[in-house]
Structure to design on (71 residues):
């Protein structure tokens, strides 16, 4: 019975080690994908803010702000 118990424990240990290795690879893949998403969002925010600033400057240059007393 002790030999059977030892084999059972070894099998469970191997299963846990394999699951841990798979989980580690999965975590690394998720980390890489999240980094890519963060980079894409950073550039998207920069493009949107740049467009808003450019639009505001174009509006001001085109005379979009009327100053009181200046006709």
């Amino acid at each position: 019975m002790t030999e059977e118990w030892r084999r059972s424990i070894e099998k469970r240990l191997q299963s846990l080690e394999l699951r841990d290795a798979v989980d580690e690879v999965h975590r690394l893949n998720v980390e890489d994908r999240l980094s890519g998403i963060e980079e894409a969002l950073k550039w998207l925010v920069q493009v949107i803010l740049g467009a808003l600033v450019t639009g505001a400057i174009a509006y001001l240059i085109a005379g979009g702000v009327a100053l009181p007393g200046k006709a």
